[in-house]
Every structure is written in C-alpha cells, then in structure tokens.
Design brief:
The structure is a homotetramer.
Chain A lengths: L1 H17 L6 H8 L4 H6 L3 H16 L2 H4 L8 H9 L10 H13 L4 H27 L9 H21 L6 H11 L2
Helix pairs in contact in A: 1-2, 1-4, 1-7, 4-7, 4-8, 8-9
Chain B binds a DNA duplex through helix 3.
GO molecular function (chains A, B, C, D): DNA-binding transcription factor activity; transcription cis-regulatory region binding
Keywords (chains A, B, C, D): DNA-binding, Repressor, Transcription, Transcription regulation
InterPro entries (chains A, B, C, D): BetI_C, Homeodomain-like_sf, HTH-type_TetR-like_transc_reg, HTH_TetR, Tet_transcr_reg_TetR-rel_C_sf
Chain lengths: 187, 187, 187, 187
DNA sequence: TATGAATGAGTTTTCATTCAT
DNA sequence: GATGAATGAAAACTCATTCAT
C-alpha cells in the first residue's frame, strides 16, 4: 500500500527532525500529504506508526543480506556509508537515517517492542562483524591479539559514536578518525 | 537556592527516563516534591529548565578542570568512569548522566542555545585530549602514525558510542572493547 | 457549520459582558453549550475567535448593503436603531451589539487585523453618509454651510457617543438628544 | 506618598495600553520602577488600584472647579482640549487619558464602585453644561428651540464620540466636525 | 474503504495573592 | 514599613483518539 509507505516515510523524517516524543499524528499526515484520518486507519496508534517507521529506517541502515556476502573488513565501509549518506554525495551523512537511529536507540528503553527488534538486529550485525573479524584474524590481516567479539563491539560502537558526533557538529571531520581506527586494527 | 537545584536534579532524571520531548513541567515539580508553580517561578520556561539541567549534568561528565591535571592517556579512564558510574559500583553506568548526554546530543539540532554550549564543551574536551595524545606520542607511548586530532576524535566518539550501546543493551560487555581500543592505541 | 456560529455568538455576548480582555475560551465554550476543545478546533486561537465574533457583530450594525438604498438622512435612524435594538422593543439598546462595538473600538489599538477591518468598515460608512449629506444639501433639506465630510463625521461620532453614554447610564434619555441633532442639521 | 502616585500613574498608562482586563500587577510595579510587593502594600488588590488610577485620570479630564468659572460655551473647548492633549501640542490627543476614559466607561458595567463615581462625575458635568446652555440660550447666543438638557447631552456625547473615533483612526480630522457642531448650535 | 469533525484529557504558562523576613 | 519568594488556581492551547458519515 502506497499510503502506508508514505506515512512511514513522513514519520521517519519527523522523528529525525523534531524528536520521537514530539512527533504528532497530524504533522505526519500533513507531511505525507494525506488526510489526518489515514493515520488511525492504517496504524493502530501513534506508537505503532513510529515503531514501524523507525524499524524500516534502521533495517535499511544495516542490510544484513548484503553484509553476508562481504569478506573483507574494509568492504564494510562503503556499504555502511551508502546506507547513511544522501544519494548524490556519499560524504554527506543523511540526517534522517542517522537521526532516526539515534532516536530509536534512546527510545528502546521505554518501548519493549522496539527494544526487542533493535537489539535483535544489532546482535545479528555484531555477530556478523565478529565472524568477519575472526576470518580476517585467521588470514593475518587483522591484529590477532584482541578478542574478536570485543573488536567487533568496538568497531560498531565507534562507528555509531562518530555518526552521533558528526550529527551534533557537522563541521567535525570524522573521515580521518574512521581511517585511523581501521589502520590501528589492521596489521 | 535549594529549590532551583532540586528542580534541575528532577529534570535531569526525567530527561533520561522519559526522553527530552516528553518531560512535563508537572512531572518535574512532582518528582522534586515541589508545587507546580515553582517551575515557572525559577525558570523562564520548560526549554530553559531542561537546557540548564542537561548542561549541569553534561558538564559534570566532562570535568575539564580535573582533566587538565591528567598526563597519561590511561588516567582518563577512571576519571570518565567515575563521572558516569553510580557511586558504589564504578562498573555500573549511571543511566541518568549517560541518558542525559544522549538526549542532549540529539536535542542540539533543535535548540541553538544548547547546541552552542554542548559543542563548545566537546571542542574543549577534544582539544584537551588531542594535547594529551600529542604528548604521549612524543614520549613514544602512543602510536606515532595517526594524526593526534583524528585519534582524539576517535577516542571520544568510541567512548560515547560504547556508552550508547551499553545503555541500549545493558548486558553487552563493553569493558573488553574499551581495553582493546587502548591496547591498539598504545605501542 | 452550526458549531462555529454558536461559538461566535457566545463570544460576542461575553465580549460585551465581561470585556474583551477577560473573555476566556472556556467561558465561550460553556456559554455555547459546547466542549472546550471546540474553540481550538474551529479557530486558530482566542484572538481569531474574538476578532471574528466582533466583526460579525459590528458588520451587522452597519449594514452597508441596505444603507446604499437610503436616500433621506432621516431614514438612517430607523435602520441604525433596528441594528442596535433588541427585537421586540426598538427603543431599548441591545447591550451586546453596542458593547461589542465599544470593546472593538478600544481593541483596535492593539490588534492590527481588527483595526484594519474596523477602520475600513467605518470609512465606507462615513463615505456613504457623506454622499447622503451632499445629496440632501443639494436638495436644500440640510444646512448648506458645513462641509459634507465634517457633517457626516459629526453625525456618526455623535451617534456612537450617545450609544456609549446610554450604555454607561441606561437611565439617560438619549432619544431627545438625537432628535436635537437632526433638527439642527435640517433647514 | 510618592510611591502610591507612581503606581497610579503606571496603572493608568497600562490601562490605556493593554486594556483594563489585561493589566497585571507585576507590569504596573515594573513600569513604576518599584518592587512587586509595593502594589499589595499600597492597595487592597488589583481592582482597587485600577479603579483609583482610572478615577484620578478621568477627574483630571473633567476639572469641575475650573468649569464652574466658564460662562461661554465656546470657552469649554480649550479647557477640554487642554485636559486631553499632550502638553506641547494642544492638537494631539493624549492616548493615555482618552484611553483610560474609554476603558473606564466600558468597565463601569462590571464595577459598581467605579460606576457610581463615574456616573456621578458625568452627571455633575452634564448639569454644569446644561446650566451653561440655558444661560447662553437666555442671552440669545444659542438656538432657543432645543431643550437645554438634550442639547448638553448631545454636546458631551458628540465630544466623547469624536474622541473615540480619533483614537481609533488617528488620521481622521475631527477638528472640522467639532467646529460644525458649535456652528450649528450657535445662532 | 476513507475521511475529518468532534472531544476531553493533559500540557505550559500566567498571575494575584500570601507571608516570612 | 517593605520586599520578593512562593503558591496554586485558572488560563490558552495541543493532540491522540473516536466515530458518524
């Protein structure tokens, strides 16, 4: 249903713009160019609308299917970058997806449904990266000292942290920091 | 003014608990055990109350004065840990301070006053850590390859990222990841 | 929309009764026998509600359409009387319409929207009366000495002034004064 | 007491500026450059403060003592003009005194104390003008046809009406209309 | 299936008044 | 005599949800 999709899109934009707790159903309908009644008609309530919108956005940021075919740690970068950048320029961070991610991570503590789905997704992602690190350590490309799980946790957390800081201070150059991390990790 | 302080405390707790956009002045007053009118009397409005509460909390997390006396990179860890952990157990992350930090970082995009104060604080912190990294590189304790600014940016972002993930999934062991980061950085 | 109309009616009554600045949306809703939310639903805010209510009342007091068919100055009297009196008795001044007029004239200084609409209406009315005076002077029915514009201004201002005084002191006999004015004007 | 006087002055200004119903005690104290507590200390409540302020202003507009020495109707004009104009330019209408008069006349309907004092003042004024008209009619200066009381009522009401219209539309030339009235009245 | 008018609970803010100092 | 911190009642406004059409 196109209507449903338009509402989810509008809701994701507004979560990023005004913050989860201040999104109103009226604003979502208006942004989507749809009548206000459409929200209640397609979703059980505001909570459901926002949860679905956030999950759709976050899932697009961690495309597990595509990640499964990655074999080199450095190949993660372009994939992740593509999912958080605005199409024409891969250097610009898309404020909607990164904003929704940050909002959703905070919202987890209050919304069990969302929490379950987000942590499940992140665990799958962490496990995938752990396997990747393990393989690269086996090949001698990545430092063998650190535990693969800890390293994967670090890589993901550092990525999110850089994202958050870039969102806060757009002038902050984070590309250098990301490269430093990869250089440190590789032998 | 004890009243003002009680309101700031209650507001910080609620920002972490329910999220910036859903804190109500009524709830703040109730939590502080004060009449509702006290909020309007002591603050110009909700925005001011929340901004002051968030800044007081975040400033306590980055105690620049104490940081100036630090000379070794590893000495940062206990200081940071102390500022974000609940007093009895330094291993537990205080959900209030870390929650407020996460909320404030998101709120920056909509609140210029907050944005100015937070970015100023983080820039001072980043500059301080950069100097520390530089000194440690001179002493040969830290890898000389990476640019000191990028390394400092990475360290802070990784710290915040780990904090955020720990907040999201309390069972996630982040201590190991933090140690891995330091081990990679040191020669 | 019957609801909207009921609110406008109730608002006009309350403007006259308690004064513009002390009308509350709650009281308007209650007077109209409607829920409180109806006010915000049908109007953008209190200001808009009161402005619309006042304009509807004042426009009914100066029925320009009907005035255009008037040819004799004395025919103005019954028309004006009809628009400000309570239906059964044409001698009694309706406290609502005259009260709203007085309140609206005062409010103009603080409400540019209202000011524009009221002054436009009064200018149209003044111009219409000026034409009428001019015609009557040509016919020799009205004193030819005074300037038609000044005379029209005087007639209207005197009418409003008598209205205001009658409102203040209901026992004051103003009918005699009104007749005196017309007698002086006519040759 | 100078303090009391300063409060009355400030209150009169604010009545004219924001309207009777929207004057706040805080604003009065601030305008007077006095502490907020001074209001409660010098007056029994807001109602008393505003009533006293309005009466002091209105009484200054109708200086009965000076009026008693007037013998010619035309001598009323400069006296009235002086009491409602701003000192340097007798042509400009003082928005404070005329605004307070208009507000007070409307407020009478809700404030019995004020109503008593205002109607008493206006009746005294009307009686004085009636006597004046009677004398002038005896001297043959004023048209003998109309009843003196009705003529006095008309004169006062027309004056107030012109004042009100000038307040509403400052560009409206009312001097001509006033002269026309006097010309009509005189033989 | 789809709409938008209607509702009322809940939010922020204002403010006269009280009262301890 | 004088002050201003404190209070709570009441105001305007927002908004998710319901429901008749």
């Amino acid at each position: 249903m196109a209507t449903r999709h338009q509402l989810l899109d509008a809701a994701a934009q507004l979560i990023a713009e005004v913050g989860w707790g201040r999104v109103t159903t009226r604003a979502v309908a208006e942004r989507a160019g749809l009548p206000h009644g459409a929200v209640s008609y397609h979703f059980h309530g505001k909570q459901e609308l926002l949860t679905e919108a956030a999950m759709a956005t976050v899932e697009a940021m961690f495309p597990l299917d595509q990640l499964r075919s990655v074999t080199k740690l450095t190949d993660l970068i372009p994939l992740f970058q593509a999912s958080i950048s605005t199409p024409p320029d891969p250097e610009t961070i898309d404020p909607v997806s990164s904003g929704v991610l940050a909002e959703a991570m905070r919202e987890c503590g209050r919304n069990p449904e969302l929490r379950g789905r987000i942590t499940e997704l992140l665990r799958a992602y962490r496990s995938l990266v752990t396997d990747l690190v393990h393989a690269e350590q086996g090949r001698g490309v990545v430092e063998r000292g650190p535990d693969a799980t800890d390293l994967a946790t670090l890589l993901i957390a550092a990525g999110d942290g850089l994202l958050l800081h870039a969102l806060l201070d757009p002038q902050l150059p984070i590309a250098g920091a990301a490269e430093v991390l990869l250089a440190l990790v590789h032998t």
